[in-house]
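Q: what does this look like with adenosine-5'-diphosphate bound?
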Amino acid sequence: MRPETSLTRVLEPGSARRLEQGLGFTTVQQLLDHFPRTYSPHNALTGFSGLREGEYATFIARVDSTSLRRLHNRRTEVLDVTVRDISGEELNLGFFGGRQFQRQLREGAVAVFQGKVRIFRGEPTLTNPSFDVLTGPHGQDEPASTDPEVGEVLPLYPATAKTTSMFIHRCVRLVLDQVDFSTWLDPVPEAVAEQESLPSLGEAYEMVHRPATMEQPELGLRRFRFSEALLLHGLMERRRRLAGELQGVPAPARTGGLLEAFDAQLPFELTEGQRSCGELIAADLAGQHPMNRLLQGEVGSGKTLVALRAMLQVVDAGAQAVLVAPTEVLAAQHLRSLRKALGPLADQTRTGLLAESGSPGPVKLTLLTGSLSAAERRQALLDIASCEAGIVIGTHAVLGEKVQFAQLGLVVIDEQHRFGVSQRNALRERYTPTPHMLVMSATPIPRSVAMTAFGDLELTVLHGLPAGRSRIETHVVPTVLGPRWSERVWERVAEEASAGRQVFVVCPRISSQDRSQEQIQRQLRDRFGFTDDAAAVSFTTARPEGKVVWVDFRREQAVEHLTNDASVEALARHFAEHPALSKLRTGTLHGQMPAAEAAEVMGAFESGDLQVLIATTVIEVGVDVPAASLMVILDADAFGVSTLHQLRGRIGRGRTESNQCLLVTRLPTEHPSAQRLTEVAEHTDGMQLALLDLQRRREGDVLGAAQSGTASTLRLLRIVDDAEIIEVAAAHIRRLTDSDPQWQSAPALWRAVEAWRLEHTGAEDYVHQS
Ligand code: ADP
Ligand code: MG
């Protein structure tokens, strides 16, 4: 029997049909790769005694009765389910929007339930627990406790009403009994399996599906995770190798060029990190093959300068460089700051200055964003196509088909977390020879994540910050504790401004009514943990009198909270009406302003004409205003950890001694989102924050837009928890490649990797173009 053998040849026709209808499985491999979600040590009903509030509980119980009712708002339906445990004790479960579960949870059905216990009217209860039906209501399967073939450990599978966990288990056992795994191709080379003490493929499937002890599943799973990690690194290795064979644009450093002149006029010393990263990059640029490098450095570490020096080296070689930023605000700021940094080395005029004899001619900087006028755009495209523009700065607009570089030598992507893989490669894949690529990120990426999501890039870390950076203190301001707390925030704003320093005030939104239903839905899920139609979650909140009590925080309240989010417009009104704040020179900035207006406001803030800038997260990345010393973030709980860390990085860039970031929240201090703020306040190291944050989030979120087909194909490998496996597997691949470049000793691995690579080589994959 082979992995792709049809289930109809192994199981009874009825069973095969049920698996196909219920789970879409048609092959032996699909069924065997359907791993249990969890395991129960005793193959029997469990007891309810000892369920404690706030605890995550797993138990097996029999459905006693169900009833459907509507909440007083008439829209939400609740399915009340009463279940009994082994001693006949009762427990009530509530399913919001539960009509869909009514068929599965019929009287007599036995299921394993999992969820958080809370106390409602003095009784323990679970709201929308997850569940797997073990045996259907009418004896479709034998009762869980009497199946003689099930050992001490009961695997619990993700199941549906008809394809219950018990049914799946029975089919899996039938298949396991018939497969001869020695005939299956195993991508894990024998030597590796031996060295890492991994069970064989067959043993691993047994351990996962038919464990003899509670420890076995983990041992079996480890083997499958390892195999995924090997494939992943194998794939990255192949991609690197193929990319390394592409013809690049060699740009060796030139004596007497722009880069030399630029270094000579730099008003400060490069940091140690900037110097060493610069050397690596310079050597890459000089090579025959395209560079493919991820430069990772803490907010404010001076990545732009590293990028600019790389761009100058490329321009010195007669090629063009493009810097792609995620927002127009940032692109415009880059243009201004590069012009400033280059001074006379940048061509400030349209016609181009004649260089003094012996010194390099100035480089022309060209901006290309979506909001240029038709005439400006035409001129920019012309400059780009004629090689007149040496350095192009732009947003996504430069990725467009109409943009044709005459001689593109280097693509720099700033703040890569805002771009997807395909965008990252879009520009590059259109050109032969292949331009170099430098990807920059201030969002700290733990090593295992970087190896997974950006494994085809060389990872370089820019260590250290430029000298003279001052400390930033971060405080959480919980306004539920009373109005005095918000007043104090505004006092700080006024104090700072009157001391000649500048203030950012960041709001989650532009105006009060600018949110779609979906956005609210998404926020309900992200911020309050509401899933689908689940309508209630309980946590502490504060009453107006300031007393903290336990209440049911209902969906309506959450919506109310969200629709009253702080907004730029509301805050601008607040500033205008406030006796002290109205005296300050205040500007507003958000992504929906016309670009020219936004540039004007940003310019006024940079020059110090404005004391306060009320903005959305358009200022999250890149914005660099040395006199800014106070950052106030309203409804800070609305933002993720990395956004908060980035925002905080906007201050403390000048000589000011005391810099403060205030995370203002209306949530009660016990709320998980408020505790996330405490974490941000307590840690200043971005990497540590990223790790803390990762532990709380799901893998998909971790990789975000960064994931190509590869990461989404990871089934079992957990990027954070399995960091060790990821590292070890990478080392094995390296060793294998060094000693046996064609992997002749591991043909099954080669085939699996190639199959995976071809499957995920879409139009977006530049490697394939070779
Ligand atoms: P990020 O890495 O977050 O993109 P930037 O490139 O915006 O950081 O740099 C932050 C600030 O530090 C800029 O104002 C830049 O001019 C300044 N800077 C960069 N390198 C140095 C250096 N070696 N010494 C002093 N200041 C520097
Ligand atoms: Mg930057």
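The pocket of adenosine-5'-diphosphate (ligand 1) is lined by residues 268-271, 274, 297, 299-305, 442, 466, 622, 624, 653 (CB under 6 Å). The radius of gyration is 30 Å.
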